[in-house]
Amino acid sequence: MEQFVEDQEVISFSSLFKIFWRWKWIVIVLTFVSAVASIVYAVKQADVYRTQLIAIKPADKSQGGLSGMSGQLGGLASLAGISLGGSSEQYLKQIVELVKSRDFLQSFIERHDLAPDLIAAVGWDKLNNKVIYNPELYDGKTKQWVRTAPPGKAVIPTSWEAYPILFRTVFITEEIKKNILKLSIEHYSPYIAKHWVELLLSDINTLYRERAKKEAIDSISFLNKASETARLTEIRNMMSGLLEDQMKTAMLTEVRQEFALETFSAAVLPEDKSHPKRAMIVIVGTVLGGIISLLLVLIVNSIFPVRASKE
Q1: Same domain, 153 and 250
Q2: Which domain holds residue 138?
Q3: What is the total count of domains within the chain?
Q4: Which residues contact 254 (CB under 8 A, 6 or more apart)?
Q5: Which of 104, 254, 273, 282 is 20–30 Å from 34 (CA)?
Q6: More confident call, 89 vs 282
Q7: Over 60: is that where the pLDDT of 214 sits?
Q8: Does 56 lie in the same domain as 28?
Q9: Global pTM value
Q10: Please, how many CA atoms are within 13 Å of residue 310, restricted to the half-sphere of its CB?
């Protein structure tokens, strides 16, 4: 019985080999065409560069604001101002969600006019250090949009259109145990990638700094009024401590540019591309072409089977 099964397998493989050999030119031609197409596709793909920086949560943020006095005044502390404290995990995750949000990224696009380099860019001129734009979309010389407006859209694209592209090029991850946040951006131009990732960190800090400044000023105003009506000396002393904390926070918002995140490892101009992996594209394309050609041979052979020769 085992011998019969082995004979069947030998016969089966022998038959398949004969079929593939009969239609070998289909296999050879299709595999060759697939290889050439893969090479052409890989060569036409523009290089993409990725720049990364590493930021950390400032050490004093976990003790900043009202955390030192909140245990004494409880509910009053929560009314008197903000605290950028809390666990590092929550703090960093909030920043990650902020960066991924449509509101933040669309504002980022509008604030720095990134739409042309997101929507119309197709490559980078390394010799002249210039972004290459799709001439059917954007005129790089006149800085004017020339595209045909898509249905329901205007000639000049909005940040809504550019957001999905930027979202796919921004990568942000937090490492809670190390108390760090990794932020990176991809673009055809390594200079733009480096510039954008630095702008992104700057905008995060600006947003947090402005929020903290407003809440600290509001807190100072509240504490000044509350201390005037307080009768007990102990409460006044506690409020003075809270007021001092808020004045420190207000001062930090003026003098510290990296308010929410500090640069731990600055962005470096990349010299090597991140992708595409052209060799892998060619290998995968050629292998897929070979597999498809073999399947096609089986289909063709089923339509035009080999006829048994007469003895």
Answers
A1: yes
A2: 49-265
A3: 2
A4: 213
A5: 273
A6: 282
A7: yes
A8: no
A9: 0.77
A10: 0
